[in-house]
Design brief:
The complex is a heterodimer of chains A (about 170) and B (about 150). Chain A is built from eight helices and no strands. Chain A is mostly helical and about 170 residues long. Chain A has two domains: about 70 residues, no CATH class; about 60 residues, no CATH class. In chain A, helix 1 runs antiparallel to helix 2 and helix 7 packs across helix 8. Chain A is extended, with a radius of gyration of 23 Å. Chain B is an all-alpha fold and about 150 residues long. Classes of the chains: A mainly alpha (about 170), B mainly alpha (about 150). Chains A and B meet through helix 3, helix 7 and helix 8 of A and helix 2, helix 4 and helix 5 of B.
Chain lengths: ~170, ~150
C-alpha cells in the first residue's frame, strides 16, 4: 500500500520503476502467505525481475522524468473512486476466504485432488492441472508468449531495416 | 559498466548459479513449485544480467539473435508436436498416455516434462528477444545519465 502511494508520488520515472518492482516483490510475499506458491514464484520472477528490467530499457529509450500534469486530477480521481467502490461492493457477495462450500471448491477441485495421484502421480497438483488436464490452455498461453515475442520483434527490430531500405532508395 | 569491478566479479559467480536454479525449477517442477514459465524467466535473467553488466555484444556472441528467434518457434513446436504425436498414436490431442501406452502414469510424467521443456525454451527465447530488441535500439548509457 505504502509502495503504491510512493509510485504515484515519485516524479523520477527511474524511482517509479524500481518501486513497482518492490511492489511486485511484496505482493509475491502476500501470495506466499495465501499458500499460492506457484503464483508467488511467477510474480517474483516476472513482476519484480523481468518487467523492471524492461521498464528500465524503455526509460533508456524515452524520457527519464514525468511531465507535469496539464489538467486537474479531480475527474480521474472521481472515476477511480467510483470504480474502486464498485469493486469492493462486488467482493461483499463473494464467499469467505477458505470457505469449503465456495463454488470454486465444490465443482472441479475435488475431482483433481482425488484423481491426479493415480492418473498422473505428480506430487505438485498445480503442475498436473496446468500441463495435463489443461494442456490446451497452456498451449494457448505459450502461443500468446510467442506472439508477443514476434510482435516486439516486428515493431522494434523491423523498423531499422525498413529505414535502411528507405535510405538506400533515397540515395 | 567496465569499471564496476565488484559487480562484474559477483555477476560472473552468480550466472552459473542462476542457470542451475533455472534448470532445477524446470525439471523439478513436478515435485516443487515452479515449471516452464518460471524456469524460462529465470534462465533469460542469466543472459540479461550478462548483457547488462558486460555488454550486449558479448551476450550476443554467446546467444546470437538469429538463434534465439529460432528457439522461440522450437519451444512452441515441441509442445504442439507432442500433441500431434499422441494424436497419431490414436489418443486425444495432448493426451500423454500415448507416450507409454502400457504404463500411462509414466507416459504422463514424460509428457509433462516434454511440454514444460517446450514452455521453458519459448519463454527464455521470447524474454531474451524482447530484451535484445529494447537494448539494441539505444546506445549504452553512462552512470551519470541516471
Amino acid at each position: 500500500m505504502l509502495t503504491a502511494l510512493a509510485v504515484v508520488r515519485a516524479q523520477s520515472l527511474f524511482a517509479t520503476a524500481m518501486l513497482s518492482g518492490a511492489f511486485s516483490l511484496l505482493s509475491a510475499l502476500l501470495f506466499v502467505t495465501l499458500d499460492a506458491v506457484d503464483v508467488a514464484f511467477t510474480e517474483a520472477a516476472v513482476g519484480a525481475g523481468i518487467s523492471t528490467v524492461l521498464m528500465l530499457g524503455t526509460l533508456a529509450l524515452t524520457a527519464r522524468f514525468e511531465r507535469p500534469a496539464t489538467h486537474s486530477p479531480v475527474i480521474p480521481l472521481f472515476v477511480v473512486f467510483v470504480t474502486g467502490a464498485a469493486l469492493i461492493y462486488g467482493t461483499l457477495d463473494m464467499p469467505n476466504f477458505g470457505d469449503p462450500n465456495a463454488p470454486a471448491q465444490v465443482h472441479l477441485a475435488p475431482d483433481f485432488i482425488q484423481n491426479s495421484p493415480h492418473e498422473i502421480d505428480v506430487p505438485n497438483i498445480v503442475t498436473a492441472i496446468l500441463a495435463s488436464y489443461r494442456g490446451f490452455d497452456t498451449l494457448g498461453e505459450v502461443a500468446v508468449v510467442f506472439t508477443a515475442g514476434v510482435g516486439v520483434l516486428l515493431l522494434l527490430s523491423g523498423l531499422r531495416h525498413r529505414r535502411r531500405r528507405q535510405g538506400k532508395e533515397d540515395s | 559498466m567496465r569499471h564496476h569491478l565488484i559487480l562484474r566479479v559477483v555477476t560472473k559467480l552468480l550466472i552459473g548459479v542462476i542457470m542451475l536454479f533455472a534448470l532445477y525449477v524446470q525439471f523439478h517442477g513436478d515435485y516443487s513449485p515452479g515449471g516452464g514459465f518460471q524456469a524460462g524467466v529465470i534462465m533469460s535473467v542469466a543472459f540479461i544480467i550478462y548483457s547488462v553488466v558486460f555488454s550486449l555484444a558479448d551476450a550476443q556472441k554467446v546467444l546470437p539473435p538469429w538463434f534465439v528467434h529460432k528457439l522461440m518457434a522450437v519451444g512452441l513446436l515441441l509442445y504442439a508436436l507432442t500433441g500431434v504425436y499422441s494424436m497419431f498414436a490414436g489418443y486425444n490431442y495432448l493426451d500423454y498416455d500415448a507416450i507409454n501406452p502400457e504404463h500411462p502414469v509414466s507416459g504422463q510424467h514424460n509428457g509433462i516434462i516434454l511440454i514444460e521443456l517446450g514452455v521453458g525454451i519459448t519463454v527464455t527465447a521470447v524474454m531474451v528477444t524482447i530484451f535484445y530488441a529494447f537494448a539494441s535500439r539505444t546506445p549504452p548509457m553512462d552512470d551519470e545519465a541516471w
